[in-house]
Amino acid sequence: MPALADALVPWFRAHARDLPWRRPGYGAWGTLVSEFMLQQTPVARVIPHLEAWLARWPTPAALAADPPAEAVRQWANLGYPRRALWLHRAAVEIRDRHAGVVPRDVDALLALTGIGDYTARAVAVFAYGDRHPVVDTNTRRVIARVVDGRAQPGTPHRRDLAAMAALLPEDVADAAAMNAATMELGQVICTARAPRCDECPLRDTCAWLAAGRPETEDTRRRQARYEGSDRQARGAVLRQLRDGDPAPALQDAVIAEWPDRAQRDRAILSLLSDGLIEADGETLRLPR
DNA sequence: GACACGTGGTC
DNA sequence: TGACCAAGTGT
Which one of A18, A59, A118, A188 has the fewest beta carbons within 10 angstroms of its own beta carbon? Predict the structure, then answer.
């Protein structure tokens, strides 16, 4: 095994958290749903939503048989509700193009709605045990520090994929463990703020620690302010249609108290454009 | 490649 | 308190 995997894989096997999707036989559908929910969303918030989702829709075909509105409602306040819509579309595609079986091939996975480079590889590796590099935000930070000696990623995604490929052990099971181990290290030890280097299994080989944990020029974009944003307005519109009266809402009655009229209309238009809501005459509702 | 996209927790 | 952060994707 490459040197880093020699230290990291045993650490992972000893310390891995007991997460639902790591249970034996969790299944490719469970893995796929978990990966959709985990996109930009912390583990602790995902777990209860995931279990409720899989209890209601234990297969892609079960989800595909219900209207997208039900997926958006079940998604509740998890955030980025487009993911609920995309997950529903992916379930329909899996039913129609893959006989209801989550595909194993990375390119077939990439062709599904809402699945990008990370999720496709994550499903192939964690659900099916295949050997590919899996690179998420945690992996990028770990590589930046341990390999490149930088505080923050800064490098192109493409290069991190190659870097991770070079770190994978030959053995398929070890390679999958290495992918998970790198992500886990980034989540619990090599965190974005206040990394716990004294507990790190890679503390003797980490380039960043050896260099005295230098600050790196921060190339990250600042997250836009949420308060007063279009995103907040979209969230308010969708929340009303999702959680409000069962009857469809008249367009003028949707978030009627919203202070910025133009912003409210913009939010409705963009939700219509995304397919997250539909117009039915004078009324607005979730998509059927 | 930059940007838009939710929501809630943390320091 | 407010800015940062969180298993990304599509345009």
Answer: A18
- Shared domain for A169 and A76, answered yes or no, is no
Q: Which domain holds residue A271?
A: 230-285
Which residue is closest to B11 in terms of CA–C1' distance? A193
Residues A186 and A234 in one domain: no
Angle at A25 between CA A13 and CA A84, to 5 degrees: 100
Q: Are residues A17 and A123 in the same domain?
A: yes
Same domain? For A28 and A100 the reply is: yes
Amino acid at A171: D
CB A122 within 8 A of CB A115: no
A26 touches strand C (CB under 7 A): no
A55 and A97 fall within a common domain: yes
Closest CA to B4 C1' — which residue?
A231
Protein-proximal positions, strand C, CB < 7 A = 3-10
What's the half-sphere exposure (Cβ side, CA atoms, 13 Å) at A126? 26
- Is the minimum distance from the CB of A191 to strand C below 7 Å? yes
CA of A227: nearest nucleotide by C1' is C2
pLDDT (tens digit per residue) in A5-26: 999 999 999 999 999 999 998 9
* A30 & A116 share domain: yes
With H, G, I as helix, E, B as strand and everything else as coil, classify residue A278. Answer: strand
Query: Does residue A118 have a pLDDT over 90?
Result: yes
